[in-house]
What does this fold into?
Amino acid sequence: MHRSTPFFQGFSSILFGRPALSGLQEKLREVAALNTLSDFFETFGFLIPDALLRRSSAGANSRQRRFTLHVTFWAFLAQTLAPETSCRDIVRKVQAWWLLRAPKSSAGSSSTAAYTKARQRLEPETIRGIGEHLIDRLERHTPLSQLWLGRRVRVVDGTTVAMPDTAENQEKYPQPSSQKTGCGFPQMRVVGLFSLASGVLLDFAKSSIHVHESILFGQLMATLKKGDIALADRGFCSFHAFWKLSQAGIDALMRLNGVRKVDFRKGKKLGTNDRLIAWKKPAQRPKGCTQEEYDALPASMTLRHVRLTVSARGHRTQTITLVTTLLDPAAYPLQQLGELYFQRWSVELHFREIKITLGMDVLRCQTPAMVEKEVMMHAVSYNLVRSLMQEAAIRHQVDLSRISFKGTVDTLRHWSASLEALRGMPRKQQVLLEAMFALIAKDLVPLRPGREEPRAKKRRPKNYHLLTKPRHEMKIPGHRNRPKSPLS
It folds into this structure.
């Protein structure tokens, strides 16, 4: 009986049986059964449900490939947790695993094309879904004792990251105008919204560097919930921002923008260096404010202004002014507002952890779509590490803010290999995980309030010329300091 028949097409496999699988298809099934080739799966697997990485029945990730959705996601994650990991490293690891499972089979192509195409097929919605799951888990496990006066505080700040100098990247994220053509790098502005209690990255907005941070903050306001407190620096302080937040039932505490002058002799006195002062509606519509929003702005707003004196050893005494919608001095004393604002510095440390420890300072992808996907993967990696830190803090009753982020990353990099070696032995893996959490909880950063370190490098850079022209036009003399002598 022939296998092909024009009748009963839907019952073909029932009538004639399934076709024999090739050796490659058998190995692909084994890979799918093991979910991933990444060591980090054994460390982070309990944080990400399998349903979020399930192979779809149709679409880009429906086919059975060597780089499955699981393999691609965890490999991409490994590259963000270990910035020195290249695409070739990932391909070599897959080849080594393949030969370990089937010594007589082929290791496959050494080209990185299959892996890079698999990363392109990784949908942003998949990464976003995993990120939202992690954020929800971190928020649910945040103890009430870590809240500020029983309220959630969200810290906002901005930064910039560089990326490879390609035509596509330059078009969407152009380099600063101060840099010459061919001598600079495209830059992306990123504004992040963090939880003060857990340090989780709740959301972020991105654009070219020609868009101000305050405009990107407007895109993040939808992430805030009624009853939250927004904590920000003076770059975000504006009439429009205070009004928009107050309309959503969100309070704010920001440093007064230096452009706005406030007379402390006016307004209602609440205490020493504590006054209620009315702000007037701006005469011109600010950037980022639609005409409808501008028309809806009230003629004035009453905001609370507190003045603090900051003294640091070796520096002149400085006076700063804070502006807030927390108008009740009995419920929110001046001293506690000052202490809360000085905790804003934690957001600078969070960006340092993402950019320096995880290597997001210089992105590596060649197209805007992949660059944006790379930023999303860095956010997932950061929140995964934060999840481990929170788990260690809860299990061993230590202050989450004291646990070292860099120490946690170093620990999981080495622990993941040992956990991978114990695959299939859950009891031994659990013992190893308990030991890992104990070590993370012991790696505490010392309390150093008021510590100040200059942003300066001691080690001098190598004496190389800087590009002042595009590379193909640049000509370097024989000696770096002087022309080569005819007698030398």
Q: What stands out?
A: The chain has three domains: 20-122, 125-357, 377-442. The chain has 16 helices and nine strands. Residues 377-442 form one domain.
